[in-house]
Amino acid sequence: MLxxxxxxxxxxxxxxxxxxxxxxxxxxxxxxxxxxxxxxxxAEEPDNKLISWFKGFDKRGIKMCIVSNNxxxxxxxxxxxxxxxxxxxxxxxxKKAFLKGIKLLGTEIFNTAVxxxxxxxxxxxxxxxxxxxxxxxxxxxxxxxWTRLMRKVERVIINMLIKKGLLKKPL
Length: 171
Ligand SMILES: [Mg+2]
What we know:
CATH topology: Rossmann fold
Largest sheet: 6 strands, parallel
Structural class: alpha/beta
Radius of gyration: 15 Å
Strand content: 5-15%
Number of strands: 6
Protein name: YqeG family HAD IIIA-type phosphatase
CATH superfamily: HAD superfamily/HAD-like
CATH architecture: 3-Layer(aba) Sandwich
Number of helices: 6
Number of domains: 1
Organism: Koleobacter methoxysyntrophicus
Bound molecules: magnesium ion
InterPro entries: HAD-like_sf, HAD-SF_hydro_IIIA, HAD_sf, PGPP1/Gep4
GO molecular function: phosphatidylglycerophosphatase activity
Pfam family, one: Hydrolase_like
Helix content: 40-55%
């Protein structure tokens, strides 16, 4: 049960993830969260650092799709800027949007990674279906009250995972 909440990889930020890390595992596609994973919660558009991070994966033939619980306008403008597909109002951790994501990517569950900053939506959703899951530390602490509440639950889960030796805090 606890394993459903445990990411396969836990890192400080997306910038600690190199294309080779995933290519070596046979990963061909990434379902990536938007808010507090790719950019801080309130950021309006991708900056140069994000664009060059993204291009590194693109060059290795690893495709990306943004899957976000946020609304259409916000998700669309980011996805368009990076010229990648997106799914908005995804209702993660429900399975539907993840399955739609691999359809858009043209990949399968076994060769797709899920990256996100929330255990209860991104990681739980990805693990339920058997994706390779990557948890990042949220980029900013500015969030909706609901998310802030969920963070408290997540902290308890993270501490339990660490105590059981299933997870290591990122350096
Ligand atoms: Mg997020």
